[in-house]
Amino acid sequence: MADAPLTPDRILEAAEDALRRFGPAKANVVDVARALNVSHGSVYRHFPSKAALRGAVAERWLARLAEPLAEIAAERGPAQPRLRRWLDALCDAKQSRARDEPELFTTYYQLALEADEVVRAHVNALAVQLGEIIADGVGRGDFTVADPFRTGRAVFDATSRFHNPAHLAEWNDPEIKTDFEGVWLLILSGLGVPR
């Protein structure tokens, strides 16, 4: 049986495996090529540099995080519970991955730090999803804000302590859920939700 054709997806899977095995400091293109039984030049035909390959791995990881959030944003129905589910899903995804696979999470976080443009696009896409939920809420009369998309970005920024890996050390704080509830009430107030 012939080997499967070399595709970007196969290369990314092998790169993820190499990162798991060797960590971001030691994993290299030769490790990826060896795992695929190809030359490193074959890998470079799909990804022009080690940085491009690592950026693609980070992008793939962030896309997996964003997919369920996009589904929540696309749902119809009352905006307030949808907004809360979206925020809970984001925070839970990041915090549970950090807790369950700390070494792998740290690896992906390091890759994301190297892939500035990828992260910026990811954050912007998430802020747009929040803006869509808020705009839907404005249309339904659930929220009263003038600029739903600017507000979406503000909500994303206001909750960053609970989902941005830069705050990883704070996620084990026993008061983190209580702190989130305080921010949630502030968000609802800012959205014009009556008490």
TrEMBL record:
Family annotation (PROSITE patterns): HTH_TETR_2
Transmembrane segments: none
Annotated region of DNA binding: 28-47
SUPFAM superfamilies: Homeodomain-like, Tetracyclin repressor-like, C-terminal domain
Domain HTH tetR-type, first and last residues per copy: 5-65
Sections of the chain in a coiled coil: none
Key words, A-Z: DNA-binding, Transcription, Transcription regulation
UniProt keyword annotation of DNA-binding present: yes
GO molecular function per UniProt: DNA-binding transcription factor activity; transcription cis-regulatory region binding
Domain of life: Bacteria
Keyword Ribonucleoprotein annotated: no
Protein name: TetR family transcriptional regulator
